[in-house]
Amino acid sequence: MTATRRPFRQSIDQLRDSPLAFYVDAFEQHLHEGGYAPTTHRKYIGCFAHFARWMGEHQLSVEELSEDATARFLDQHLPQCRCPGPVTRTPRDLRAALGHLLLVLRAEAVIPEAAP
Length: 116
What we know:
Layout: H1 5-16, H2 24-33, H3 38-57, H4 67-77, H5 91-107
Helix pairs in contact: 1-3, 3-5
């Protein structure tokens, strides 16, 4: 296994043991259908895994996810993040990936549409 695939496999394994486990295939399908490059795909899966770890630590269920929850992660957790690697800490990548996460969860009818 190559060095770049190792962190990706770790991220997938973390996701499969997380509150987001049931939606891993839907994430991957969404990224594939969106035509994202393999490097972006791996990066976003890493973002989902980091967020899922935070969800677990805060006992946040998937049904509780919203723009507010992702903002708390980005604004409160990320600046002081000490999560063991490999994790993505780039705000721009995390913001983009979490936007896709919310799209997938809404498409799967897991969370309600965003309030206007």
